[in-house]
Specification:
The structure is a single chain. By secondary structure, the protein is an alpha/beta fold. The strands form three sheets. Strands 1, 2, 3, 4, 5, 11, 14, 15 and 16 form a nine-stranded mixed beta sheet that branches. It has a five-stranded parallel beta sheet with strand order 6-7-8-9-10. Strand 1 and strand 2 form a beta hairpin. The termini are far apart.
Length: 306
């Protein structure tokens, strides 16, 4: 089926672009400012702000959850907020736990109604070259490193870590329990982390990613998820949100500002199908697919060190 999303105000790179999109077989076939001469069924999107489906990070979907608890969490924490792809994180204590933890996470996500990537979170002391090599074997491309206040970031053999990532970099993301960190200590830890990552040319995120919040385009680029997810482009997937345009606050420079904790999309579409309309979620177990990152940071500017 082919149709046109007409007169859309598309949020792209923090700016609004007026565009129309031709959808064919659940793919974006064509985009341009107007399609007045093309005869297809049209959906007038002029009252809305159109955004790509959000990508969010998740630490709460555990294998011990029963189906009801899984459904409740993924519905209320993610889908209602316009999330169409989740980066769900498996807890790993050490290298010996890696395979079983990843298998349990994959088993849990079989029921997912949205697409997902699987990452892991492990203590700083457990980050080793051999674990990195095993992550590549199990298609894990994102590692959240749980840093305690007493961890000495300079004690790690980072050169060996980099060697283990040769030809297929894995992105390292700092994870700090903000309840135990003072603001000054947190800032200092992140500064040291960023300096080490740059010195050793490791693919990394220099900030904390918060659960249930849309991941920015820059971070998606570093992770290697963009533009497969988090973008609307010709040939891309039909994953999008519609916000009431009059509910979106516009700043003086023309950039829209959305409070994602208070402003929810009125419509969310995943793979061309409506999964949320005015807070009513259509939960279809198993239609979500596991996604894999081929190369971390492949679309970030060349001036950025990875």
């Amino acid at each position: 089926m082919s149709y046109i999303l007409d007169s859309a105000r598309l949020l792209k790179s923090d700016r609004i672009q007026k565009t129309s999109l031709l959808i064919n077989q659940n793919r974006i076939e064509f985009m341009r400012q107007t399609m007045e001469n093309i005869r297809y069924m049209r959906m007038d999107l002029s009252p809305y702000l159109l955004t790509p489906g959000h990508v969010m990070v998740d630490f709460s979907l555990h294998s011990s959850l029963q189906f009801h608890g899984f459904k409740h969490l993924i519905t209320n924490r993610y889908i209602k907020k316009g999330c169409t792809t989740v980066v769900t994180v498996a807890n790993v204590n050490n290298e010996n736990d890696l395979l079983s933890s990843v298998k349990e996470k994959r088993q849990l996500m079989i029921n997912s109604p949205i697409d997902y990537y699987i990452g892991i979170k492990l203590p700083f002391k457990s980050l080793t070259p051999s674990l990195i090599r095993k992550c590549k074997r199990y298609n894990i491309s994102v590692i959240f490193v749980d840093i305690e206040e007493y961890d000495n970031l300079l004690s790690k053999s980072w050169g060996w870590i980099r060697d283990a990532m040769f030809s297929n970099p894995i992105t390292l993301v700092p994870y700090l329990n903000e309840e135990t960190y003072s603001l000054i200590k947190k800032q200092k830890t992140l500064q040291i982390w960023d300096k080490i990552m740059n010195e050793h040319r490791l693919s990394s995120i220099p900030m904390i990613l918060k659960e249930g919040e849309p991941i920015s385009r820059d971070v998606l680029m570093r992770l290697g998820i963009y533009p497969i997810k988090g973008d609307l482009h010709v040939g891309g997937q039909v994953n999008y949100n519609l916000y009431q345009y009059d509910e979106v606050h516009n700043l003086s420079d023309g950039r829209p500002s959305i409070d994602f904790d208070k402003t929810y999309p009125v419509i969310t579409t995943h793979q061309g199908k409506l999964i949320q309309v005015n807070g009513m979620v259509s939960f279809i177990p198993g239609i979500g697919e596991e996604c894999f990152i081929s190369i971390s940071g492949r679309f970030i500017p060349q001036s950025v060190t990875i």
